[in-house]
Amino acid sequence: xxxxxxxxxxxxxxxxxxxxxxxxxxxxxxVGHTGTLDPFATGVLxxxxxxxxxxxxxLSGAEKEYEALIRFGYATDxxxxxxxxxxxxxPSQRAQSLRAQEIEAAMATLRGEIAQVPPMYSAKKxxxxxxxxxxxxxxxxxRQPVQVTIYQFEPxxxxxxxxxxxxxxxxxxxxxxxxxxxxxxTLAEDLGKLLGVEAHxxxxxxxxxxxxxxxxxxxxxxxxxxxxxxxxGDQIISPDATxxxxxxxxxxxxDARRAMNGVEIEFDSDHEDKQHLRLQNVAGxxxxxxxxxxxxxxxxxxVVLGN
Length: 307
Known about the structure:
The protein has 3 domains: about 5-60 and about 210-240, Pseudouridine synthase (2-Layer Sandwich), CATH 3.30.2350.10; about 65-210, Pseudouridine synthase, CATH 3.30.2350.10; about 245-305, Archaeosine Trna-guanine Transglycosylase, Chain: A, domain 4. About 20% of the residues lie in helices and about 30% in strands. The protein contains 7 helices and 17 strands. It has helices at about 15-25, 100-110, 130-135, 185-195, 220-230, 240, 255-260; strands spanning about 5-10, 30-35, 40-50, 65-70, 110-115, 125, 130, 145-155, 165, 170-180, 200-210, 210-215, 250, 265, 275-280, 285-295, 300-305. The protein is elongated. The mean pLDDT is about 90.
């Protein structure tokens, strides 16, 4: 079972939980994901199965798209709705006075390339330890800012003002398109700081990871039903289509065998030096991913799948 599954992750499960369930349902032990989703978040989780797990490196850096709900009025220790409220006082009236124009001005400063400090409740490692493990022990360590790119950070609709809640907080739905490694929780907190009001992320749904969208995803329950019908194969994206963003080369039978043995292949092309290429056999199946050497005019198989 080799290829890619796009799972619509439910709230309450970690990405590791989803991987474990997919292993049980499919019977395939080799399962990996291309980007962690927090337990409270939902949406696109790209899973690679079997030999296709070797392709993770070509997908993990893909940009992500989210629908998020920012709640103005108070902060939490995790930066999201699962955390402990840091301010026991009633939300300040500042949350109730926010206007569309000032929110847009603040959001504009958070677009483009920005520096983010990873939250303590995150899977990022510092000196070999995951930050959330330290946070759960009540420890806090210095974290170095990370450069990320925010391609889009917009209200869910034009001219929108936050919607008031009965408890004095205000909810503001947004759309975010960002580079891999971006913490939307931190984006929500930073927006609140710019507006002079505490904030946290109340909801998060990933709608796209690279080329894979939530419209092409399936739930874990649906996956179990496909398993009962022996039709999981219909849901799996082929290894070749998984990395369809890379240029293809169709190899003859002899060169395909060479590629599967890790032997470089002569190839005259105008591709850029160090460009990754999909190496296909005559049937259009992916046998390897190669790196083009513009000076030597060769392609060296870097990741071999074989067939």
